[in-house]
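The pair is quoted verbatim underneath.

:::
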Amino acid sequence: MEWLKPFEANNQFEDNTNSLIDFKIRECIHESNVQKKYSLLTQFFLLLGSQDDNSVTSLFVENRIDNQVIEEIIMHFDNTKIVLENELPSEIMLSKPNQESLSFIRSNKVNPIVKNLYGTINNTQYEWRPQKSHKILSEFIEKYEDMEFDEVLDC
């Protein structure tokens, strides 16, 4: 695989022992007046979250959670927690994809990139094991443009 090169990861954690950040984790309660919307973001996060029953998917936000994230992502998970730093949201922790939403996504056309990443059937058990890090050499990758998928990259 000439498009991969072994990569030595450096310590990527900063020492924040002197910082005065107040962390809280709160459960997100879905409001009944908010409608679920289905989109490419919904496909991406639902199929990612359905890969393992015990998985938690993190979505990082900057101080606010907009309506699109609520309607197209959060509303499709049965367990959602919000991480607050100094009373401002910084992360959304998603787990337990809603089965009704999953069925709807799987019964409709899935974006080709999302389908290639996750497929549409969850029947594989994953086992954690130490991983080697690799760097992808972009000059060996054939480009595939999908303007619709650019929205997922923003998240």
